[in-house]
Amino acid sequence: MRHPHTRTTRTARTARRRAVGALTAGLLCAAGLAAPAVAATAQAPAAPAPGDGLALTPPMGFNNWNSTHCRADFNDAMVKGIADLFVEKGLKDAGYRYVNLDDCWALPSRDADGKLVPDPVRFPDGIKAVADYVHAKGLKLGIYTSAGTKTCDTVGFPGALGHEYSDARQFADWGVDYLKYDNCNNSGVDARTRYTTMRDALRATGRPIVYSICEWGQNKPWEWASGVGHLWRTTGDISDSWGSMLSILKQNLPLARYAGPGHWNDPDMLEVGNGGMTDTEYRSHFSMWSVMAAPLLIGTDLRKASPATLDVLGNKEVIAVDQDPLGKQGTVVSAEGGRWVVAKEMKDGSRAVALFNESGTAQRIATTAHSVGLSDAPAYTLRDLWRHRTRNTAGTISATVPAHGTVLVRVAADRHWAAYPPAVELGLDSSPFVEAGRPAALTTTVTDLGRTPAGRVSVSLTGPTGWTVTPASPTKAVSLRTGRTLRTGWRVTAPRGTPTGSYDLTLRAAYRSPSGARVDSTLPLTASVVVPPPSGTSYLGDLPWLSATNGWGPAERDTSNGESDAGDGRPITLDGVVYAKGLGVHAESSVEYYTGKACETVSADVGVDDEKGTKGTVAFEIWADGTKVASTGVLTNAMPARTLTADVTGAQVVRLVVTDGGDGIDSDHADWADAKLMC
After folding, report:
1. What's residue 360's pLDDT?
2. How many C-beta atoms surround the C-beta of residue 45 within 10 A?
3. What is the distance of C-alpha 75 from the center of its chain?
4. Helix crossing, 164-174 with 191-205: angle to 10°?
């Protein structure tokens, strides 16, 4: 959630939440992920859910807030248009059912009888007419209010506190099928009391209404709400940024044992398609929400959705993971160096496995069928849910995963495994750094993961126009048996004058299955054109970085983070001391530098910027290649700045990381003040 000076409609809502004392979810420490629960371990039984047969799988649908907020285009025509698109674009067939209205649908005041009044400009025919239209499409309608005197928007529309039975009756009479019940302006009334009262009011109507508790995780609803609602928010609001999505993911993952049919952890709506993340990041967002058995509520304006957005939202194989009737939330098998393995038990005995790369560079991520909870078998089928292809594996589940990417597979001990070609893993076994005009040595790998051999294997590597790519060792193998690898060296040269930055390479392999069928496999790679770091001591704010990700807005050079546009920060200030040089970031953040094995030390004064007052909780880390070499532990704004120094001798890449301290990214303005690199 953003601070009051940020210029968005979401900010107004967030500011209202803060005004009523609603802090961002103080969730069970994401630091607990340092010792993740193993997927094969049995989950503790969750408390009983409402016995009404609703939400036996996570609800799927649409909510307008992330795309329209309270703008004038949130109206009758927009809602009906979304219902039309559900049918026209195949989303209804994919499982999406709920078309949900968020805040601003009502007038600011009740009528003389204390009843809610739909805004006659936005909804001239009332809510029942909208519900009838949606129902005629075979869909369901959702609505919004707050468990307080007013809703969260700054206009202050009527909340339901003290009006629960009357409002629930209106909702039922209108034909509402889903209620999102927010937490603003709650007058300090006990959360469990407020949410239980509305549960009872909804039940009293006699209409089946899915009940979504939007309490932001403040009072750990996962511990008490399964007998109250069908889903409960575990965190503060999501925003359309990698850092926000990542922070929420880390907060929701440890709560797997509380989820199940009729009672779901809700890490908030989808941001897929809203423009703040890349297509790769959106696929990760959708993959990880599905592995977590999260509600899938589309948050983009489907009237403007691109084919790429619809491809993500409509991937039925990924949706099937989310909607699996066993209702298990995925659990963390391993998490180290930004490499995550999360596995979800499926009703048919298979496992959905997400290989998720948190880091800003491609990484190999690996696990085994045994580690994700499958019993021993001669071999397994391995289905890639984004590429829609099936292979056999002897037990290894691995892939080179792009930066911020996710490979999502479904693995089963299937006796028909031999009907499929062997899985072949493509990879890069060297650092992808190139200095313009100088040949760089890269090594690629092709490894047979299958139980059957890969025959007549060949490999090629191509680069951008004008680059020279020549093999330095064999590019073919007659056959690769299980676990065997074809390693090929390459000389890669970028032309002199090539600007620094990232460039695409493509690794291709072809092989024959035991039946003689040709199989092609492709791995997109990224090479970075770099310049050697200067000798002596340099300010990091003056050097080019390889990559930078940030919770809000861009990482800033020599100013604090302003959360929105580049250059909107203020002077870096820690403990009243103003620094002319440094980096201003916002958790979750990662800034990577090429050091080329030529540097020795990184140092900085670190802390939460003074501009956040008493707010903000972060932790600083310095990584040398894949090893954490220095960290602060959790710091708050009440703590003095610390000097953080790390030995990075021999590292090719140095990464400066700021995490959210385990409580969400609200107000997490983190400064690397006077940050220096000694080479």
Report:
1. 87
2. 8
3. 29
4. 40
Give the residue numbers marked as catalytic. Answer: 182, 237
Instruction: Check: CB of residue 524 under 8 Å from CB of residue 506.
Output: yes
Query: How far is residue 529 from each of residues 2, 532, 550, measured CA to CA in Å?
Result: 35, 10, 22
Cis peptide preceding 588, ω within 30 of 0: yes
Calpha distance 53→261 (Å, rounded): 9
Instruction: Tell me if 393 sits within 8 A of 411, measured CB to CB.
Output: yes
Task: Return d(Cα 337, Cα 655) in angstroms, integer.
Answer: 11
What is the spatial distance between Cα 4 and Cα 18, in angstroms, rounded to a whole number?
9
| Residues 62/82, Cβ–Cβ less than 8 Å | yes
Residue 576 and residue 606: Cα distance in Å, rounded?
Answer: 13
The mean pLDDT values, 10 residues at a time, for the chain of 679 residues are 33 42 32 35 45 94 96 97 98 98 98 98 98 98 98 96 98 98 97 98 98 97 97 96 93 98 98 96 98 98 97 98 98 96 98 96 96 98 98 98 97 97 96 94 98 98 98 98 98 97 96 97 96 96 94 94 92 96 96 96 97 94 95 94 97 95 89 98
Q: What angle do CA 240, 242, 248 make, to 5 degrees?
A: 85
| Cβ proximity of 423 and 381 under 8 Å | no
pTM of the prediction?
Answer: 0.89
Query: What b/e string do you get for 129-165 counting C-beta neighbours within 10 Å, with b at 16 or more?
Result: bbbebbeeeebbbbbbbbbbbbbbbeebbbbbbebbb
Cα separation, 492 vs 461, whole angstroms: 10
List CB contacts of 591: < 8 A, sequence separation 6 or more. Answer: 540, 545, 547, 548, 549, 555, 583, 585, 655, 656, 672
Q: What is the spatial distance between Cα 129 and Cα 118, in angstroms, rounded to a whole number?
A: 11
